[in-house]
UniProtKB/TrEMBL annotation:
The keyword Transferase applies. It comes from the Archaea. Pfam families: Acetyltransf_7. This is Acetyltransferase (GNAT) family protein.
């Protein structure tokens, strides 16, 4: 049975393995480019989470089957300005499920926990910005009810 909880210091080794799997996926499968700083970001985020050097509003959930990590969700609560009002949102930075646990509802369980957090904190939306080349992620998020709302262009 999968349980969802906040990450603990004892999770760090397994989390690093999962971050590296995610990093390799972005490099090899999505052709995101070798300049992608995901591995360094992973180490910084984990160091912040586990050394009490808090990144404001950033949180880390893990999905576990007993002592084995099945996946994680790195997210933050933030504000998005709009024309009419400032909106509180949850932004998913990374949601990753180990290949051994895909198609078993782990990602959905992580998302359900986020939806419960959203409701408890009276937050308007959950947003995610997958790489445009990550068709599998885009399809999965759409199947979970996410819809296109805006387009981000970079230079």
């Amino acid at each position: 049975m999968i349980t969802i909880r906040y990450a603990k210091k004892t999770d760090i080794d397994q989390l690093l393995r999962h971050w590296m799997e995610l990093h390799n996926y972005h490099i090899k499968k999505l052709k995101a480019g070798k300049d992608l700083k995901l591995a360094r970001t992973a180490r910084q985020n984990l160091r912040a989470c586990f050394n009490d050097i808090k990144i404001p509003n950033q949180e880390l959930l893990v999905a576990c089957e007993q002592d084995k990590l099945a996946g994680f969700c790195d997210f933050e609560e933030c504000c998005r300005p709009s024309i009419y009002e400032v909106q509180k949102i949850i932004r998913i930075n990374y949601l990753y499920v180990s290949s051994d646990y895909r198609k078993h509802g782990v990602g959905k369980s992580l998302l359900e926990k986020l939806m419960a957090i959203k409701k408890t904190r009276n937050i308007r939306e959950i947003e995610v910005s997958p790489y445009i080349t990550n068709e599998a992620a885009i399809s999965w998020y759409a199947s979970q009810g996410f819809r296109k709302k805006s387009l981000v262009l970079v230079l």
